[in-house]
Design brief:
This protein has about 150 residues and is an alpha+beta fold. The chain has a single domain, classed as Alpha-Beta Complex (Sufe protein. Chain: A), CATH 3.90.1010.10. The chain contains 4 helices and 4 strands. The chain has a 4-stranded antiparallel β-sheet with strand order 1-2-3-4. Strand 1 and strand 2 form a beta hairpin. It is globular and about 40 Å long.
């Protein structure tokens, strides 16, 4: 596959998640909720999570903002639903490395691998990381309560 075809595919995946977000909405009885803001771009994301022991059973989001932040939140929820917290943390770490340019995409990230070149646009890194950093905060809060 040529580079231009690959870029087109990545663009299509990104736009699909932005136009038709997965896991958008709220949970009826979340175990935790967190709203975060990106003042640079005006993005707002609220995450709702439900745990089942050491598993992230459900995760949903609501929000407003740029295509990147909304698509990234959709991909996050897609990747993390019904996953052990150890896997969730590994994916969070890999995504952070991917978007900051210190790591490479793996199959573990699924559609989120489309952000592999976002580090070339430093002002957009915060947009891509917003929901992922929020989930990291929620997991840290859960661990502190145990």
């Amino acid at each position: 596959m040529s580079l231009s075809n690959l870029n087109q595919l990545y663009r299509q995946v990104l736009l699909d998640h932005a136009r038709y977000p997965r896991h958008q909405g709220t949970l009826p009885a979340p175990d935790a909720t967190l709203t975060v803001h990106n003042p640079t771009c005006g993005d707002t994301i609220s995450l709702n999570v439900a745990y089942d022991g050491d598993r992230l059973k459900q995760i949903t989001f609501t929000g407003d903002g740029c295509t990147i932040s909304q698509a990234s939140a959709s991909m996050l929820c897609d990747q993390m639903t019904d996953q052990p917290l150890t896997t969730v943390q590994a994916k969070l770490d890999q995504f952070d490395q991917l978007v900051t340019g210190t790591g490479t995409a793996t199959d573990l990230l699924g559609d989120a691998a489309v952000f592999n070149e976002i580090h070339q646009f430093p002002t957009r890194i915060k947009c891509a990381l917003l929901a992922w950093k929020a989930l990291e905060q929620l997991i840290t809060q859960k661990e502190a309560q145990q």
